[in-house]
Amino acid sequence: MYNMSYCYEILSAVMLVVRCAASSALCLSYTRSFLKEKNNRRSTSAVWHIIYILGALALYYAFNTVNVFQNIICTVLKIVFLMILQRLLFHNGGAINWFTVFSFLVGRTLTLSIISVLVYRIMGDTHIDILYGIAEIAEMDSEQFLIEYGHIVLFVLNAVTSVIAAVGFILMLKLYLSIIKKSFRKKDHRLQRKESVFLIFPLAASLCISITVRMMEFTEKPEIYSDIFDVVPVTIFFIPFVDFLLLGTNIASVILFQSLVEYNEEKNKRDLLESQISRMESEIKEMQDIYSDIRGLRHDMKNHITDISMYVKKVLGKDDPIVEDYIGKMTETVDRLDFSFNTGNPITDIIVHQKGMEAEKRGISFMSDFSFPVKGNIDVYDMGIILNNALENAVEACEGLMEPYIFLRSYTKGNLFFIESENNFSGEIELGGETGLPLTSKKNPDSHGLGLSNIRRTAEKYMGDIDISTVKKDGERIFTLTVMLNTDSALKK
Question: Which residues contact 296 (CB under 8 A, 6 or more apart)?
Answer without folding.
Answer: none
